[in-house]
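Q: What would this chain look like folded?
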Amino acid sequence: MLVDWEYARVGDPADEIAYLFDQNALAPAQRDGFWLGYLEPSDDQSAIRNLHERVGWWEPVTLLGSTLWWVERWVRRIEAAAAGRLDPGAQREETYYSSEVRRRRERFAGLPA
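A: My prediction, written as C-alpha cells:
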C-alpha cells in the first residue's frame, strides 16, 4: 500500500498516480509493477483499468505542470543573477534548472500518443 500525504486533497486518484510516475520518472517496468500491485488484490478490475486509462490522460498534464514549475525557477534564477542578488527559492546554478526543464521536455516527447 502507498500513502502519499504531501498534497492531500479530494481529487482524482489518477492525478496522484500520474504525479507519482512523473516526479519519480518511473521506467515502464516499474510502472508495470505498480499496476500489477493494484490489479492483483482488486475485486473490481474494470475500475482499475479505468484508473489506468485516466492516468494516461493525467500524466501529460502533470508533466507539463512540473515543467512549468522548473521554467519558473529557471527564470527566477536568471532574473536574480541579472540583478546581482541571490533568490532563496532558486539558489542553484542556472544550468541545473535548464537541465531539469530539458529532462521533462524529453520525457514529455516520449509519452505515448
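DSSP finds four helices and no strands in the chain.
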